[in-house]
Amino acid sequence: MPLQPLYLYGGPKPFIPPPWIPTNDTLRGGSSTSSLIPSTTHKNGVVFSGHLDTQTLGGAGFAAQFSPTEDVDPARWDLTEYEGMEVKIGGKGDGKAYTLVLKDDAASGSDDGYGLGEDVHYGNANGNQRREASLSWEARFDITKGEKKRDGEKGDVLNVWLPWKDFQATYRGQPVEGAGGWKGGRVTMVGFMMRR
Question: Which of 31, 66, 91, 94 could hold 191 in an S-S bridge, CB 3.0 to 4.6 Å?
Answer without folding.
Answer: 66
